[in-house]
Amino acid sequence: MCLECPTSSCNIGLSETDRNEIVAHLSKLLASEYVFFTKAYKYHWNVRSPFFAQLHELFEKTYNAHFASVDEFAERIRMLGHEAPGTLAEFLELSLIEEAPGMNPGECFMIADLLNDLEAMIQHMRTDLIEIEKLDPVSADLLIGKMKEYEKEAWILRAHLEFVEDDNEDFEEELFVEEKKPAKKKTKK
Ligand SMILES: [Fe+2]
Question: Is the CA virtual torsion 88, 89, 90, 94 positive or negative?
């Protein structure tokens, strides 16, 4: 850039105030996407199950979908004239969902955890959409597209748990109890 370069301000028919408000929503969604992507990636690596191949692939599809979403939200933020947050510290600060460090849960807990986070993100998007729709149909369209994708993902994850729940009414309670059990010690022969 030289001093003679023309202005590079964002002039797309949205006021600075409106763009700031939209970007505030999108930044939280971007950060949440990154945290969710990371969690699905970890579960892809660490799942242990008789259905390993199926779940390994399911989690791979999940993290790939959300890795793509990270880019879409970040690029939308740039189109609105802002810089996208892009460090792990920023993502953890802005994220609407939480990490679960130090845990390598069982397969059902992994699915339940991803489902809970996904439903939380859908709920946030539905609320954000009320404000964003009033300001910018293009950003609103991005959210609607993501909500469509995620409601389908949530259905697929939920279907895995419905099968388990049919067999066990105390499923959730036992699920969390199981997580707290200490690892079995190997006995010397
Ligand atoms: Fe892999």
Answer: positive
Tokens found for residue 52: 């390993």
Span from the CA of 185 to the centroid of ligand 1 (angstroms): 29
CA–centroid distance, 154 to ligand 1, in Å, is 21
- Tell how far the Cα of 40 is from the centroid of ligand 1, in angstroms: 11
Name every residue whose Cβ is closer than 8 Å to that of residue 22 and which is 6 or more positions away in sequence. 14, 80, 132, 135, 136, 139
How many angstroms does the Cα of residue 81 sit away from the middle of ligand 1?
A: 35
Q: How far is the CA of 151 from the centre of ligand 1 (A)?
A: 24
Residue 19 alpha carbon to ligand 1 centre in Å:
38
In this prediction, residue 168 carries a pLDDT of 54
Domain segments of the chain as ranges: 16-179
64-to-28, 47, 80, 84, 115 alpha-carbon distances in Å: 19, 17, 25, 20, 16
**Phi, psi (5° rounding) for residue 13?**
85, 15
**Per-residue model confidence as pLDDT tens digits over 99-154:** 988 877 889 999 999 999 999 999 999 999 999 999 999 999 999 999 999 999 99
The Cα–Cα gap between 171 and 123 comes to 24
The third-level CATH classification (topology) of the domain covering 16-179 is: Ferritin (1.20.1260)
